[in-house]
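Methods — Computational structure assignment.
A single polypeptide chain was analysed. Its primary sequence is given first, followed by the predicted tertiary structure written as structure tokens.
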Amino acid sequence: MQSNFLRCVFLAILLFAGTAASAAESYPDRPIRLYVGFPPGGPTDIIARIIGRGLSEKLGQSVVVENRGGAGGMIAARAVASAKPDGYTLFVSVESSQTRGAALHKSLSYDPVKDFTYIAKIAKQRNLLVVNPGFPASNVAEFLAYLKANPGKVNFGGTFGATSHIGGILFDLENKTRMSFISYQGGAQPITDLMAGVTQVGFFTEATIASAVKAGKLKPLAVCAPERSPEFPNLPTIGEAGAHSMELSPWFGLAGPAHLSPAIVSRLEHAVEQLVSDKTFNTQLQQIGAVSIVGSNAKSNQSDVVREIAYWKKFVADAKIPINP
């Protein structure tokens, strides 16, 4: 009798394993939902839709972008963390919900490490250091000299927790300068006020300010990344210009709920690998001031998240940035 019971258990295990393997082999056989933690029309949404179209082509299945905006991407992250781990609910992972968010909030409604399966980083956007056209500095050396001669008297505007905020704090910390932060709820107002002279300095993504820079409404001083921008090839990086090098490049990745099967992870990794080497995809990114991230995978992405959370927590402590509840 015990022998028959054990035989039944063994057969059930084999049947389950076979069914799971079959499901993974046929993945995806229906549309995939790709959550985006920001409203339609913004930089993250634009990149997410480029990623969604590319993944749809590589996977041979529809990828439907669904906006779940709010709380710096945390609403979308929470929805994915609680989703069924079948590979049909994914999201565009970002620093504000997965790494910086963990440092800027006392607690989250999810664990950014344990509650997700990270597939890969896919792309990043460059930020530019820009000033109002009337600001008395035409390069980074002059900018640094002015800041050191006027501690606390120069202001920069942005949204708390975004790179527009973190960029100024990081610049101050690395270069031993002191600017004053003017906080905005978000949207285009920080850029509008910079052009109007209400604020003096900004650290904004290239995509959001490229047209204003080209129109002469903002004066660019440097690229906040290790590499120059093809859109502004004569604009030096901050390191080249004489300040402390900084990587202020918000990244965009692909992630799903915890416990995605290895077969599904492998399938998605392969699709991302194809995507970041695709010429059309890279051209589309370049048009919005972004660049693909080559060589990322599930293992490295997971390690990056752990490392970056530790980095941002130390940064927040060192910079004495107030932490949200």
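Note: Confidence is low (pLDDT under 50) at residues 14-21.
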